[in-house]
Amino acid sequence: MPIYQIVLLSALGFVPSIVWLNFYYREDCHPEPKHLLTKVFLMGIILSPLAILFQLLLIKCGTLSILEKICLPIGFLQPASPEFLLWSAFVEEIVKFYAVRLIILHDPAFDEPIDAMIYMIAAGLGFAAIENVLVVLQTTPDGFSVTINTLILRFIGATLLHALASGLLGYFLAISWFFQNHRRKLLITGIILATMFHFAFNMFILSFEGQIYALIYTTIMLLGIAFLVSILFDRLKSRHTAVPMPRI
């Protein structure tokens, strides 16, 4: 494949994430510096290989030929099993959180609770962007129309999933601002809820693969969580604090 085509397809893979990032960026009454938002977005991309690495660590040897030379004795999960999907969802939510923790969590610009949701969503969309690029490159041999249709489905599906799961975790990170004695419990709660939402989405996709029910159930779920995230944004907008972000 020519280099220019790879570049164009890669750029196309970023479109869904950029659209959703612009949408949620408008939720902040005091918009964050775009260069910091970009850094968090890029960190979500940079850390994505770590998620793949940790996900594959627990794959059972002999189940994937590509892993024969690097599989570990500790591996016990079957690919595409519910246990593996749960582990994968957990790893991805942790990686997205660390993208925020490394870049912005203790930056002076991180000065409002609502910022936690905005930056978590940015990290999640960065993670989703690299997934989209890989999917686009994989579907290219099937034709341009297949690639576009796949990207549209990911725009309203997996990309939005990453934004919402990260936003959900971001809310619990935000309210830890007000309940500093319980900040770790709140963070753990956020990670668990984001992981379970992510896991449920993947289970619907796996259980009803190729069926219209997969689209119906995941759409209902995404709309419900999107509505919840919108409410959580409004709750944070109504709260203000001069207390600095607790160290996590």
From TrEMBL:
Database matches in InterPro entries: Peptidase_PrsW_arch/bac (IPR023596), PrsW (IPR026898)
The organism of origin for this protein: Candidatus Yanofskybacteria bacterium RIFCSPHIGHO2_02_FULL_38_22b
Subcellular location(s) per record: Cell membrane
Entry similarity comment: Belongs to the protease PrsW family.
Keywords: Cell membrane, Hydrolase, Membrane, Protease, Transmembrane, Transmembrane helix
GO biological process, one term: proteolysis
Keyword check for Mitochondrion: no
Name the record gives this protein: Protease PrsW
